[in-house]
Amino acid sequence: MSMIRDLRAAVRPRPSLRKDSGSYDTTRDPGTPSAVVDCAVYRDGARVQTRTPLTPQEAMRQVRRDGGFVWIGLHEPTEDEFAGIAGEFGLHPLAVEDAVQAHQRPKLERYDDSLFTVFKTIHYVEHDRLTATSEIVETGEVMCFTGRDFFITVRHGGQGSLRALRHRLQDDPELLAKGPSAVLHAIADHVVDGYIAVADAVQDDIDEVETEVFSPGRKGTPRGTDAGQIYQLKREVLEFKRAVSPLLRPMQLLSERPMRLIDPDIQKYFRDVADHLARVQEQVLGFDELLNSILQANLAQASVAQNEDMRKITSWAAIIAVPTMVCGVYGMNFEHMPELHWRYGYPVVMGVTVGLCLSIHRILKRNGWL
């Protein structure tokens, strides 16, 4: 039972490794098919050492002869590269098609002798400043085939490597002795931990945008921000949401419904994964609602600023209308006009005009139009 109590510590990345969890190591073992990143047999919780790298067919023959299970990791296999493995392990054609074509939504499908699970991996893209074209999250896929004596991972995208996770599991023989279901739990926990890290980073971006929208500009008025930045951030959050929300039901099924391919001791720990995933989902839904409010507030500020500008333009037009009217009247060149031949007529008219302009300016400024 001590192994079970230490399960979370064994499968979750250490803080120092989290920043590197998004990088993908393209190194592949020589002598294996080009899509195979790693292929190993595990017996009694330990990796069976071999002089040369095993092919999937050789690994499966060892398992059938001596017991244990085989874990095969592939990266973006073609249909031809995956056909031999699919035939060797009896994978369902529909699941094989999904694994090769990728671009699947997170899901859990049960076939006669295997489980097919799809995870969306999320990687946060570092950026100096958020713009209307910034890429904030990058997605990939991890597809898992879980059988009685095999575990196959098919990854798509340039991030989401499982190499470090495999090494951590190999350091815990008691956990690996539980078989393929322990690996499935470790991957699920690893993916959801990545969601948590990305959610924290996205929260920082949203806080930055929110501060920029409501920070004061000139003369204490709200400064506002580019609506394109908010919309781009909202699109990236939507991509995040598409990875998180569909995965909740599969995790609940793995934690609540007995399955013969899932070890009972491991199954209870899927509840923890489902709980963390539910919290991330609530956080992402909150991001979406908050961004809606920020976008509406930004648009409202833009509308208020436009109204303010129109009020100022209208106020100055009203002031300028007084001298325009006076000059228009005295520019008509009639012979008989009031004060036309009076010595003080010009300064009096100019004084009245300036006085009227100043009075209108004072009234408008007192009412907040200027």
What does the model show?
Helices cover 55% and strands 14% of the residues. With 370 residues, the chain is an alpha+beta fold. It has a seven-stranded mixed sheet with strand order 2-1-3-7-6-5-4, sandwiched between helices. A hairpin with a 3-residue loop joins strand 4 and strand 5. The longest helix is centred in the last third of the chain and has 61 residues. The chain is rod-shaped, with a radius of gyration of 34 Å.
Overall geometry comes to rod-shaped
Q: Please indicate the percent range of residues in DSSP E strands (runs of 2 or more).
A: 5-15%
Tally of helical segments: 14
> Roughly what is the average pLDDT, rounded to an integer?
82
Distance between the termini: 76 Å
Task: Write the SSE topology.
Layout: H1 2-5, H2 7-11, H3 15-18, E1 36-43, E2 46-47, H4 56-66, E3 69-75, H5 79-89, H6 93-101, E4 107-110, E5 114-124, E6 137-147, E7 150-156, H7 163-170, H8 173-176, H9 180-214, H10 227-244, H11 248-256, H12 264-267, H13 270-330, H14 345-366
Helix pairs in contact: 5-6, 9-10, 9-13, 10-13, 11-13, 13-14
